[in-house]
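Many introductory courses stop at the sequence. We go one step further.
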Amino acid sequence: MASYVDLELLKHLTTKVLPYVDSVGMNEQELSNLNSVLERGRVVVVADSNPRIATALDQMRNTFRLIRQKNKKFGSKRKLTRMHVHTLAYQAILTVQNLKWKRTPAAAAKASLTAHRYVCNTQNINLEKTKLLLDDSFSTTTDNDNSSRVFFEANKPVACWEETIESDKVEICVAPVLICTEAQLTAGAGDNISAAGLVLQVEI
């Protein structure tokens, strides 16, 4: 949808489109705005361009709940069962378990590699033109009563775990992005990143 800052567009999106989809993909600023419109009916004036993983995950959980409520309110035959948020530093994919979505860890990894390859405009990963913004671990929520931390492992760089959101068991996977330090392409990056993650989850 290109930009999630037009309030009128977002309000139409929340009533005409989102109640009838089973998968959504967006960047961190779009997530922040969509979450705000669903919860408070207004867009965020300034959105964090590099949010902590815990902050983005909390927004994903809340947005998931709010869109599921829209599914029910509008009597939709579809339910939101997949969310993909792509940021400069990481990819995060949430899927409801035991449904059609496959290979969530691989999807997060492919989206991460696509982010680098598309922006650097090359199929090869040149480590001299990359940087990581993430530490080796992160909190899964900003909730002070929950001290859960997840660690990245060298031989398993995509971190995945299971949760329950209301009555749904979900899998969440987070993959760090090898950020391209010499950008060649930026327009269309989000579309390519979202598609790269989606295609692995719907392929037979």
